[in-house]
Amino acid sequence: MPLILLLLYVQFVLIGLNFPLFDSRELVLYLVWLPLVFAPYIFTRKTIIYRVITALLLIPVSINFFHIIVTSRPFTVSSLFILLNTNAGEAIEFTDTVHWWRVLLLVPYVVLVYLSFTRVFVFKGNKQSRWVYAILLLFSLIFIAENIANNRFVRKGLNNEIRVWASISSELDGYKQLQKRTIKKVDAKRKDTQQNEIMLLVIGESLNRNHMALYGYHRNTNPLLSKRNDIVVYKNVVSPYTYTLGSILEIYTNSTINKKLAIQDANTLLDVFYSAGYETYWISNQSPIGVWDNAVFNIANTAQHKIFLNQSGNSSMETVNNRSYDELVIAPLKKILGKQSNQFITVHLLGSHTKYAYRYPATFNCFTGNATEKEKTINEYDNSVLYNDSIVNTLIETIAHHANQTKQKVTLFYLSDHGENVYDYNNEIGHNFTNYIPKCLVEIPYILWSSDTVTRLTAQHNTNKASMSDELFHHVIGLSNVSTTLYDGTLDINNSKFDTLKTRKHEDGLNYDLKKD
After folding, report:
1. What's the pLDDT score for residue 291?
2. Peptide bond into 355 cis (omega under 30)
3. Alpha carbon of 502 to those of 45, 77, 466, 491, 505: distances in Å?
4. CA 63 vs CA 161, 196, 437: distances in Å
5. How many angstroms separate the CA atoms of 98 and 403, rounded?
6. Model confidence band, residue 481 (pLDDT cutoffs 50, 70, 90)
7. Over 60: is that where the pLDDT of 203 sits?
8. pLDDT interval class at 251 (50, 70, 90)
9. Cα(359)–Cα(373) distance, rounded to whole angstroms?
10. Cα dist. 426→49, 88, 286, 382 in Å?
11. What span, in angstroms and rounded, lies between the C-alpha atoms of 360 and 352?
């Protein structure tokens, strides 16, 4: 039967490209579901029904196959969200890293697709074939019923291709709710009504701390930040997600991966500081263009003042390819600081997002000597980290000058949404994963600067504590002049009640602290 050969071929390609990710259970699941899926054809023996079923089956299988060819890994829920958070320009840039000889793998696949439609399986209908089919169908029904009874139907009873789409439905519902989200009034007030302060949250992009000299990298990618003696560098903070939307949703809200809340039920930092009487701002060098870029835009849109600087194109692809450097955020920040009011400000950087060479001006092209494509890519990524060092340092200098001039209390938090695999694990690049998240995808930088010496000294005692970025909601409130019942000291790294024993689970369901890579 050509269709079975096609399904086997997809798995054989995965074995050839990335054997550790091959799961023999997928083949078993095909055998379980095929008797049930083709039951309408078996009972009617109409060719048109066979072809309709085959066509419907091949849609998710083909998506998975093309994903395997491009990324060397099966299609997953996480890879879908990474794809949906990636605009057209970034997708095209990513294909530059793909070996085009893989296109040849399409030839057998196309042939098998053709044969699957033209060579219809003939069910003879004699006594022996009916008994064989009945046994297979009974096995399928028992297998499915057993998984349903044990509440693991989606997780264990479905093929990977179908599992992705079954799992995504709940996430899509959350996205629809996010589109409707507006600012909410919550229980929050200032502790000291005589004190004015500025809370500045800087979100980087795709920065793997293992490429930062601040965290022991062999290259001096942090020549400016490394010289500072007024910053607090947290050593052991990780992100629960490997894609921007998942990370930012939990950086900004009291939802965590261990206690997940729907967006309509969660409260954001923008809600809290707005309710406490702060002016809220969002300055972004990321493009607001694109369906899933707008998911982050929807969060930003709840701020009172929005400044989107990266508007150089008529599409996502044009905007990304026109190079928009993060230094653009400095001028609007200075203008906002001049108001001298209570402010909660977000600065969203392009950081080290692909294509790495587009993230920095030529003056920062310091790491060169490209012997291979791999070395060239690493150099470009490290140059983007070097430029990011300059941007973060300039942001600190800007607010330090403002604090010195006005005597306002100013606190800056800097972290990346997630990490990046730049040949750090399994000789791969990007932030895709299957079943297992390598540490490089979640190990992020987390830096604090404050004009208040006591705040810095307090934080300095907590730099080695194990934390996750989905707790940032409580870190920020804990160091602010805001009191709210939403604050939980057990989730605040700078609070003496901070829970140091909790499990740091990621979207792959595994404990980060037990991983070996």
Report:
1. 40
2. yes
3. 57, 26, 9, 10, 9
4. 8, 54, 22
5. 48
6. very high
7. yes
8. very high
9. 18
10. 43, 26, 29, 19
11. 9
12-16, 176-180, 278-282, 286-290 — which one is most confidently predicted on average?
278-282
pLDDT digits (tens, 9 = 90+) for 290-328: 444 456 778 888 999 998 887 654 444 445 555 789 999
The two tokens of residue 151 are: 């509440």
Given the structure tokens 């970034």, which residue do they identify?
90
3 state DSSP class of 346: strand
Task: Provide the residue type at 223 as one letter.
Answer: P
Q: Which of 89, 92, 121, 102 is nearest to 4 (CA)?
A: 121
More confident residue, 244 or 207: 207
Q: Give the distance from CA 515 to its chain's centroid.
A: 19
- Per-residue DSSP letter, 441: G
Q: What is the CA radius of gyration of the chain?
A: 26
pLDDT at 276 over 60: yes
State the residue for tokens 């309710």: 275
Distance CA 291, CA 87 (A): 9
DSSP 193: T
| Residue in 297, 319, 323, 433 with CA at minimum distance from that of residue 88 | 319
Residue 102 DSSP class: G
Spatial distance between the Cα atoms of 257 and 507, rounded to a whole number of angstroms: 8
Q: How far, in Å, CA of 337 to CA of 404, rounded?
A: 12
Give the residue-averaged pLDDT of 174-193.
84
- The half-sphere exposure of 90 on its side-chain side, counting CA atoms within 13 A, is 20
Alpha carbon distance 188, 40 (integer Å): 60
